[in-house]
Structures are given as C-alpha cells and as structure tokens.
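Running this now, will post back.
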Amino acid sequence: MDKLLNDFSPGLFVVQTILLLLLIFIMVKFAWKPILNSLNEREEGIQGALDAAEKAKREMANLQADNQKLLQEARLEREAMLKEARELKAKMITDAEEQAQSQANKMIAQAQEAISSEKKAAMAELKSHVASLSLDIAEKVVRNELSNKDKQLKLVEDMLGEATLN
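Update: finished.
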C-alpha cells in the first residue's frame, strides 16, 4: 500500500475521474435509455405473458365449469330419456294387458252366448221331442181306452165327475 501512495499522481487522478464521469455521462446519454427501455419491454413482456397465463387459467376454469355444466345437463337428459323409455315400456305393457283382457272378456262373452243359445236350442228340441212323445203316448192311450165302448162311457163319466168337483 505504501507503494500505491508513493506513486499517486493527483493529475492522473483528476484525468481518470473526468474520464470516468465522461464515460458515465456517455453511458447515460446513449446506452442507459436503450438498456432501460429493453428492460422495461422485457418486464412488460413477462407481465403480459403472466397476464395471458392468468387469463388462460381463468378461461380454462370457465371451460371446465361449462364442461361440468354440459356433462350435468347430458346426465339429466339421459335420465329423463331413460325415465320416459321406462314409462313408455310400462304403458305399452299395460295397454297390451288391457287389450288381452278385453279380448279374453269378449271371447268369454261370445262363448257364454254360444253356450246359452245352444242350451236354448237343446231345450227347445227337447221340449219338442217331449211334446211329440207325449202326444204319441196320449194317442196310444186314448186309442187303447176308446177301443171299447164301455170304457169310453166310463171315461166320459169320470171326466164329468172331475169337472164338477173342480
């Protein structure tokens, strides 16, 4: 350090100080503003990128919320369609059962009507046969009774006797 103090020259010190100040002035005049401008531009670029990233993040959140909403709506629509399909299926089954029951009732009614008409026809035919047989029997009995004159007189007297009693 002693050597430095011995070699110290005030003129050289002043010249170096003036050169340093001149260099600082030139740097401030010509380089400082472009450096600051480039730093500001870079800072603005970084801030713009951060803002764009934040905006993209918000848009992504909005899109995700919209996707969730659309997914929920799709689920609700699917559930509504499934419910409608189930109701339609139940209605179709009920309609088919009612139609089958109606047809069965019609068939039963037709069968009962057929049975009833067959029964009436059979009864009429039976009555006709019974009447015919009764007439045949009565004719044979009357012929047998009326073949003898004494029997005829006795039958007439018996019938007259019954007629007065009634």
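The helical segments are 2-7, 10-146, 149-165. More later if anyone needs it.
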